[in-house]
User: Which sequence fits this backbone?
């Protein structure tokens, strides 16, 4: 069986093609502000700063080539200017754009991983599948557009294929079908913090602009009065906007699987029996399922309930939770080979908030509790530490036991070291139903929410 992995068309559009659009925009600004090509100094400086930032962001294996092309163009422009060699206004921008597209297309066409008969071929290198390991890496921009990287490790060398669509699934194919070893992976400290902060600023920025508008409009008042009135009006308008009701999605997302046996209903999820080996989990959309937010802090007038019509504030809260639920699902797929307690998980194409998971039949109770449960949790904590992750919301109901007497965490979100700090602050600050958070069996990376649900520690004390 032969399998080929190559960059996706999305990568071609969002990397070299989008870079060319950025270059065109930069040349437009240079001409507008600095009379290119007559005044080259500031124009070249802008190009060099852009090239430096682009190089540091390191979007793909050809980033060094792309930045080199910009620097070479700057040098040639300078040489031409010093020697009074006249060229068309479009000459250097066109030359740079054509060269960027050439190397982009060259990488797109020539970069392929081909696996066949126990051998892997990549860029004139031939490896035995038994001698190499593979990891997947998804950077923020690539993740937004649905592609990432496959990294092949051989001894101390890395071989990177960028622009791969669904890299987590492709990595799983290489491990399951071709027996490549899973390469140890560790999550970045920051995780999604930068993206979270950027999105938060985008959401908050209209409030700031509203305040500026009223502050400018009330110019006849004294300074203190302007600040006070602008603040009060802005807060009132913000609350009114956040209470505008939006309709829920027309169809219950779980309507097509309602014929299956309902195994359980959680706060965010309905769980159905897919077959003997798998369950299917459907996350609730806002207005379907988890609708009661009365125990949460939110600027809602009246009852904090969702239904056919939902306040914008609750829609934002609900969708934010859904996004991090699915980020956790994808992380389960990445780290399933490194964290033994994570059951096998499969996402479903075309179903953003639905996934399949290995069915673990036995609940954690006094009858099924393994004798070495403490040791299993200690091992889990060590594996989480090596992976740079915390796992959250681990009450007894989210722990089940397989036929070998091993714990499996069937729910709970995975957070990086940086994300868990923000998550703890937000959850403790917003959810009034909680009395804080605690370690599970003294394991600092396994966290439970202190609420009405039975904890693993409480069960262990009853044994």
Assistant:
């Amino acid at each position: 069986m032969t399998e080929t992995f190559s960059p996706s068309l999305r990568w071609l559009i969002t990397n070299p093609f989008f870079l060319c659009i950025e270059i065109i925009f930069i040349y437009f600004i240079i001409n507008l502000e600095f009379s290119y090509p007559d005044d080259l100094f500031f124009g070249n400086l802008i190009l060099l700063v852009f090239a430096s930032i682009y190089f540091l962001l390191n979007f793909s294996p050809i980033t060094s080539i792309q930045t080199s092309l910009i620097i070479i163009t700057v040098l040639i422009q300078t040489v031409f200017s010093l020697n009074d060699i006249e060229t068309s206004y479009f000459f250097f921008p066109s030359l740079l754009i054509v060269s960027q597209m050439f190397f982009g297309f060259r990488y797109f066409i020539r970069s392929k991983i081909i696996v066949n008969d126990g051998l892997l071929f990549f860029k004139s290198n031939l490896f035995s599948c038994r001698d190499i390991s593979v990891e997947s890496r998804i950077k923020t921009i690539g993740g937004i557009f649905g592609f990432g990287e496959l990294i092949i490790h051989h001894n101390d060398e890395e071989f990177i294929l960028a622009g791969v669509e669904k890299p987590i699934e492709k990595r799983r194919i290489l491990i399951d079908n071709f027996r490549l070893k899973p390469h140890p992976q560790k999550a970045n400290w920051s995780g999604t913090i930068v993206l979270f902060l950027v999105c938060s600023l985008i959401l908050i920025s209209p409030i700031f602009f509203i305040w500026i508008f009223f502050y400018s409009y009330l110019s006849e008042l004294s300074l203190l009065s302007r600040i006070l009135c602008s603040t009060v009006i802005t807060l009132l308008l913000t609350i009114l906007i956040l209470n505008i009701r939006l309709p829920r999605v027309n169809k219950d997302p779980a309507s097509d699987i309602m014929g299956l046996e309902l195994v359980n209903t959680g706060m965010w999820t309905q769980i159905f029996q897919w077959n003997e080996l798998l369950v299917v989990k459907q996350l609730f959309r806002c207005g379907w399922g988890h609708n009661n937010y009365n125990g949460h802090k939110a600027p809602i007038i009246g009852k904090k309930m969702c239904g056919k019509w939902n306040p914008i504030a609750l829609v934002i809260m609900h969708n934010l939770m859904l996004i991090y639920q699915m980020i956790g699902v994808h992380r389960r797929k990445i780290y399933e080979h490194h964290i033994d307690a994570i059951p096998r998980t499969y996402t479903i194409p075309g179903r953003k908030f639905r996934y399949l998971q290995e069915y673990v039949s036995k609940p954690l109770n006094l009858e099924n509790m393994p004798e070495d449960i403490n040791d299993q949790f200690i091992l889990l904590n060590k594996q989480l530490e090596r992976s740079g992750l915390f796992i959250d919301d681990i009450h007894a109901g989210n722990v089940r036991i397989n036929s070998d007497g091993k714990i499996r965490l069937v729910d709970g979100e995975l957070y990086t070291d940086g994300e868990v700090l923000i998550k703890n602050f937000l959850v403790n600050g917003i959810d009034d139903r909680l009395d804080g958070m605690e370690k599970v069996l003294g394991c600092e990376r396994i966290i439970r929410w202190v609420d009405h649900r039975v904890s693993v520690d409480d069960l262990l004390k009853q044994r």
